[in-house]
Specification:
The chain is an alpha+beta fold and 441 residues long. The N and C termini lie far apart (66 Å). Strands 7, 8, 9, 10, 11, 12, 13, 14, 15, 16 and 17 form an 11-stranded mixed sheet that branches. Strands 1, 2, 3, 4, 5 and 6 form a 6-stranded mixed sheet that branches. α3 packs antiparallel against α12. It has 2 domains: 93 residues, Glutamine synthetase, N-terminal domain (Ubiquitin-like (UB roll)), CATH 3.10.20.70; 320 residues, 2-Layer Sandwich (Creatine Kinase, Chain A, domain 2), CATH 3.30.590.
Length: 441
C-alpha cells in the first residue's frame, strides 16, 4: 500500500482530524512522539518535524541533539475513539539527522536496513507474533479481574469484554487479527495478529500495545506487558512465527523433507538456535524477563527445537496438506516487553547467518525437557538461555553478529542502559529478603 501527501491531507479533512500524533520508538521499545495541529501537517509531511533527541533513551548526546522525525505516510491511521473530544490520527516516523541521512539510533531504521538484505534477494520476511498481557485493577498491585484459565470464555468477564473491544479497535484501523483468547494465568489474555512483512508487523505491534493499554484505561483498568507480574503464575510471552517468501512461494516448505522443512528453513532455524543466547538481551531485555524464563511455567529456557514439544524453545508447527504457505518456525522465548523492531532484526540476522554459513540443524527433541534429569540434558547437549539480565548482557557484549546487525550506537547505548538497570536491581533490598533474613540473622 502506498499513500501520497495528498492522500493523507484528504483523509484528515474528510475525518475532521484536528491533531496528528507523530510517533517513533526509543531503544527500549517505548513509543515517543509529539502532536501537531492540522495547520502544520502539510509542512511536516514535506519536511519532517525537528526535535531535541538528547533526552530520548538511547538517542543523541547533548552536543548532537538535533534530529528530524519524518512521517511515513503508509502508517497513517485514525485512532478509533475521540481524545478530549477531538478526532486524532497517528503516523510512525523515521528519524533522520538534520542533513536527511538516517539516524543510526532509530530502531525502525535498523530493522529497515537489515530487511534490505532479504529484499535484495527478492525475499520477504514475515513475522506473526502472539502477544500476551495481563489486566489488573490498577497499576500498583496485581489484583486480577478473573480466575479463569486457558481458553476459558466468560462473556460477562470484564477482561473478555475489553479484549473484544481491543480486537474491534485493531480491525477498525486495518490491523488484521487472527484470533484472541484467555491465556493460562488468571486475567491473562492473548491477541494474535495475522502475519505481515516484518517492518509492518513491528509498527502493528506498537499500535497493538498502545490500543490494549488505552482501552483498558478508558475502562478504569490497567493492562501490562510485564513479562512476569505474578509470583507462581505463568508469565507473558511473545511467540514469534517466522518465514521467508519469494514471489508468493514459501521458501521454508519442502514436501519431500520428513519435517516439510526446506534446506533454507533448516539453516535459518539452526542460525536462530545458535545465536539465541546472544540476542536474549534484545528479546528479553528487562530484569523481570528472567523471572519468566524459569522451568515449570511453560516458558522455554532450553535451546532446542521440536514439533509437538512445548518445552522446546523453537517449535515447527505440524504441516497440514494444502497449507504449504503456513510452514513456519515459532520462537517462543521472546516476551511482549521487547522492542519489536530490534527483536525482529536480531531474529532475522541470526537466521540469515545460518543460511549464509550453511549451519546444520540438529535432530528435534520431542521428549519433555522439563522432566529430564541433568544427565539426560547433558547427554543431548541441551543448552539454556541466560538466567539473568547480567548474563544476557555478557552474552550480548561478546556477539559480533548483534553488533553487525544493530550497529555500534544501539549496542553501546543498550549495554549502558541495561548495566544501569542491573546495578539498580542488584542493590535493591526486597521484601523477600527482609521476610526471610531479618528474623534469622
Amino acid at each position: 500500500m502506498t499513500r501520497t501527501k495528498e492522500d493523507i491531507l484528504r483523509l484528515i479533512d474528510e475525518a475532521g482530524i484536528q491533531y496528528v500524533r507523530l510517533c517513533f520508538t526509543d531503544i527500549l521499545g517505548k513509543i515517543k512522539g509529539m502532536s501537531i495541529t492540522r495547520s502544520e501537517i502539510e509542512q511536516v509531511l514535506e519536511e519532517g518535524q525537528g526535535f531535541d533527541g538528547s533526552s530520548v533513551e538511547g538517542f543523541a548526546r547533548i552536543e548532537e541533539s538535533d534530529l528530524m522525525a519524518v512521517p511515513d505516510p503508509v502508517t497513517f491511521r485514525i485512532i478509533p475513539w475521540e481524545i478530549a473530544g477531538q478526532r486524532v490520527a497517528m503516523m510512525f516516523c523515521d528519524i533522520t539527522n538534520p542533513d536527511g541521512t538516517p539516524y543510526d539510533g532509530d530502531p525502525r531504521w535498523i530493522l529497515r536496513k537489515n530487511l534490505e538484505q532479504v529484499r535484495d534477494k527478492n525475499w520477504t520476511f514475515y513475522v506473526g507474533p502472539e502477544i500476551e498481557y495481563f489486566y489488573f485493577a490498577n497499576d500498583s498491585e496485581t489484583e486480577t479481574l478473573d480466575k479463569d484459565g486457558y481458553f476459558d470464555y466468560g462473556t460477562v468477564n470484564v477482561g473478555t469484554q475489553l479484549r473484544k473491544q481491543t480486537v474491534i479497535a485493531l480491525e477498525a484501523i486495518d490491523i488484521p487479527v487472527e484470533c484472541s483468547h484467555h491465556e493460562v494465568a488468571p486475567s491473562q489474555h492473548e491477541i494474535d495478529l495475522k502475519y505481515q512483512e516484518a517492518l509492518v508487523m513491528a509498527d502493528f505491534a506498537q499500535v497493538y500495545r498502545f490500543i490494549v493499554k488505552e482501552i483498558a484505561l478508558e475502562n478504569n483498568v490497567y493492562a501490562t506487558f510485564m513479562p512476569k507480574p505474578i509470583f507462581s503464575q505463568n508469565g507473558s510471552g511473545m511467540h514469534c512465527h517466522m518465514s521467508l517468501f519469494e514471489d508468493g512461494k514459501n521458501l521454508f516448505f519442502d514436501k519431500d523433507d520428513e519435517y516439510h522443512l526446506s534446506k533454507m528453513a533448516r539453516q535459518f532455524t539452526a542460525g536462530v538456535l545458535k545465536h539465541v543466547k546472544e540476542f536474549a538481551l534484545i528479546t528479553n531485555q528487562w530484569v523481570n524477563s528472567y523471572k519468566r524464563l524459569v522451568p515449570r511455567y511453560e516458558a522455554p529456557v532450553y535451546v532446542s527445537w521440536g514439533r509437538r514439544n512445548r518445552s522446546s524453545m523453537l517449535r515447527v508447527p505440524l504441516y497440514r496438506i494444502g497449507k504449504e504457505k503456513a510452514t513456519r518456525i515459532e520462537l517462543r522465548s521472546p516476551d511482549p516487553a521487547a522492542n519489536p523492531y530490534l527483536a525482529f532484526t536480531a531474529m532475522l540476522a541470526a537466521g540469515l547467518k545460518g543460511i549464509e554459513s550453511n549451519y546444520e540443524l540438529e535432530a528435534p527433541i520431542e521428549e519433555n525437557i522439563f522432566h529430564m534429569s541433568d544427565e539426560q540434558k547433558a547427554k543431548l547437549d541441551i543448552d539454556m538461555l541466560p538466567n539473568s539480565l547480567e548474563n544476557a548482557i555478557r552474552a550480548f557484549e561478546k556477539s559480533e553478529l548483534m553488533r553487525e546487525a544493530l550497529g555500534d550506537h544501539i549496542c553501546d547505548k543498550l549495554i549502558e542502559n541495561k548495566k544501569m538497570e542491573w546495578d539498580q536491581y542488584r542493590i535493591h533490598v526486597s521484601k523477600y529478603e527482609n521476610d526471610k533474613y531479618l528474623p534469622m540473622l
